[in-house]
Amino acid sequence: MFDSASPGGSTPPEPPPRTGGRAVPPSPPWEQATLDLLTRGTLEVEGRLVDASNATLYCTIKTGRPDPRPEISPKINRAKETKNPKNARRQQATIACVYKPIAGERPLWDFPAGTLAGREVAAYAVSRAAGWDVVPPTVMRDGPFGPGMCQLWIDYDTGVDLIALARRTDHAGLRDMAVFDAVVNNADRKIGHLLPVPGGHLYGCDHGVCFAEDYKLRTVLWQWRGKGLPRRSVEALRRLNAELTGGSLGAELSGLLAASEIDATRIRVETLLKHRVHPYPPEDWPAVPWPPI
Ligand SMILES: Nc1ncnc2c1ncn2[C@@H]1O[C@H](COP(=O)(O)OP(=O)(O)OP(=O)(O)O)[C@@H](O)[C@H]1O
Ligand SMILES: [Mg+2]
Asked: For residue range 117-128, what is the model confidence (pLDDT) as tens digits?
């Protein structure tokens, strides 16, 4: 992975200095409102994503009451506007989401059964704590097919050429995603998992096969391998380190991942902070997912 001191190896790297990275930015109000809806709203299953290998269900959630706010989320599909105040009172905001019930997870040889949904929620927690905001709001909840993960559906910009996007070297959000993937040890960063939204922000999806203890980074984003991390990445990693060692992130992750997987995550963060370079492809593991799209 790195020139030396592989994360998860038997010799832990020296801990980085406690430089006190900047505080984690608070969640914007729309994000908290979205998390509340994802957690408590009634899920209506609209269909199954046919290409997905797991049971990945496209759902909607209605707020169940008129929404007084002008806009609670840039991603929420507002009900049709009406000029009639009686109808306006009946307006319901609707959000779309992906629901992946644990019961529908395809068994994998290299991840314990029934753990993929928790890994997706953990990926969101890490992205938030670092301030990357590369994972759409994601929660664990009960649903029509039992407990599972529920993630905000992102209406991504279909005008963007995803193959060209994945090859860019000048896209700060894409580079954030590459560092995020190194932290969570993402074994499945495909081009189709990139969700660019109008305005330039980039989200990613499908983080079920993250947080393995062994180095399994498998991604289409190798363009920065061996290159020095930009300052913004170092700052994000410091925030993450502070949250993992003295903040609340460790406790949040403990309900979602094994203790050894949280330790391995902390070691990956420390190693990235120590070497300050993007990792190299693993030598004993396919470095690019197949198919890459
Ligand atoms: N939150 C989301 N917003 C928008 N699109 C999404 C979201 N989550 C998933 N998708 C779309 O649905 C597709 C399938 O979802 P996902 O990759 O998470 O399922 P999966 O069962 O893990 O599939 P596979 O293992 O085949 O990659 C994604 O490639 C993406 O196009
Ligand atoms: Mg996928």
From this structure: 999 999 999 999
Whether 19 maps to a domain, the answer reads no
Does residue 239 fall inside a structural domain?
yes
Q: What's the pLDDT band for 138 if we cut at 50, 70, 90?
A: very high
Element (H, E) at 46: strand 42-48
Kindly state whether residue 108 falls inside one of the protein's structural domains.
Answer: yes
Burial (CB count within 10 angstroms: exposed 0-12, middle 13-18, buried 19+), residue 275: middle
- Ligand 2 centre from 201 Cα, in Å? 20
For the entire predicted model, the pTM comes to 0.86
Residue 13 CA to ligand 1 center (angstroms) comes to: 35
Tens digits of residue pLDDT in 195-222: 999 988 999 999 999 999 999 999 999 9
CA of 140 relative to ligand 2 center, distance in Å:
18
> Could you tell me the CA-to-CA distances from 202 to 136, 165, 223, 227, 256 in Å, in that order?
10, 10, 17, 21, 25
Question: Which protein residue has the closest C-alpha to ligand 1 atom 15?
Answer: 52
Give the total number of structural domains in the chain: 1
Ligand 1 binding pocket, CB closer than 6 Å: 49, 52-54, 56, 98, 136, 151-154, 192-193, 195, 205-206, 208
| CA of 196, nearest ligand number | 1
Angle at 254 between CA 121 and CA 214, to 5 degrees: 80
When the pLDDT of each residue in the chain is averaged and rounded to a whole number, the result is 85
Q: How far apart are CA 119 and CA 209, in angstroms?
A: 7
Among the atoms of ligand 1, which is closest to the Cα of residue 192?
29
Is residue 2 situated within a structural domain? no
Domain with 139 in it: 29-275
Average pLDDT of the segment spanning 24-32 = 75
What value does the CA radius of gyration of the chain take, rounded to a whole number of Å?
A: 19
What is the distance between the alpha carbons of residues 180 and 217, in angstroms, rounded to a whole number? 11
